[in-house]
Amino acid sequence: MKKALKNFNRRGFIFIYVFPAFLLYFLGILLPNIIAVLMSFMKWNGFTFDFKWVGMTNYQKMFNDPLILKAFLNNMYFALFTMIFTIIIALFFASVFCNKSIREAPLYKAVYFFPNVMSVVVVAMLWKFMYNPQFGIITAGLKALGLESLTRVWLGDLSTVKPALIIPQVWMSVGLYMVIYISAIQNITNDLYEAATIDGAGKVIQFFKITLPLVWNIIKITMVYFMANALNAGFALIKIMTNGGPNNESVVLTTYLYQNAFQNSDFGYGASIGTFVLVIGLCFYLFVEKVLKSENYQY
């Protein structure tokens, strides 16, 4: 009897503490996703209660829409290159700032982390101002250096708009991942580095032979998080800076979803695009888990 009561109390304790979190997760994430998937099989203008079941019509329309492929490829372009540059730069700064001989490291950490706490809207407006072809700081700087021939209408040129959008995304993201990698690196025992130093290994060799393998699982986790976040976080920045232009060159799935759902009042088609975005995120998670395998190191 006492054992049964103890087990009941333990389960009740777990339920009391887990249920509120699960309820918030269900109401904030699971339920909206379920509703969005159901809505993708309907035609709805978003302003009435006239829901019309259309089956796979929205998905057929989506896969015959040439802008969907362009938006998907742009999503992959932004996510891949932003992730690569962010992780490389964040790892570099994390390795440097873990060096105890740099006394100013706390100040540098705060400076590099600051863009991450800024509103996406503020970041977008700031970089849009910097890219301005008339009075932007980038154009002014090139002119001051006598490189006026390199100036461009950065956000209006088909050849420069996508790289120009990658830079603020990297600038805004590096600080967060730098802090995560610093925490992971600081958990590595110094004995490994001391032994490597005695064996004659330099800082670069130590990074690739010790640091990188021991933080690889953390990198995998951040890659999944980054990809899931990149599919949605880039929306506000791109919407404000280019609105998918010029000539749909920077359109992504989320901006195209917004256009169809909130501007064209076709919420069913918008929901089908949103479901497609969800599937992409799940596929990338499976890719990271199955393909980017690594050994478990003990230290």
Provide the helix percentage: over 70%
Oligomeric form: single chain
Helical run tally: 11
Distance between the termini: 44 Å
Note poorly predicted spans. Answer: none
Quick summary:
By secondary structure, this protein is mainly α. It has helices at 2-39, 57-63, 66-97, 105-117, 120-130, 137-144, 161-186, 190-198, 203-241, 253-263, 267-291; strands at residues 42-43, 52-53. The model has no long low-confidence stretch (mean pLDDT 84).
Which helices and strands appear, and what pairs or packs with what?
Layout: H1 2-39, E1 42-43, E2 52-53, H2 57-63, H3 66-97, H4 105-117, H5 120-130, H6 137-144, H7 161-186, H8 190-198, H9 203-241, H10 253-263, H11 267-291
Helix pairs in contact: 1-11, 2-11, 3-7, 3-9, 4-7, 5-9, 7-9, 9-11, 10-11
Description:
The protein is an all-alpha fold. Helices cover 73% and strands 1% of the residues. It has helices at residues 2-39, 57-63, 66-97, 105-117, 120-130, 137-144, 161-186, 190-198, 203-241, 253-263, 267-291; strands at 42-43, 52-53. The chain has a two-stranded antiparallel sheet. The longest helix is centred in the last third of the chain and has 39 residues, at 203-241.
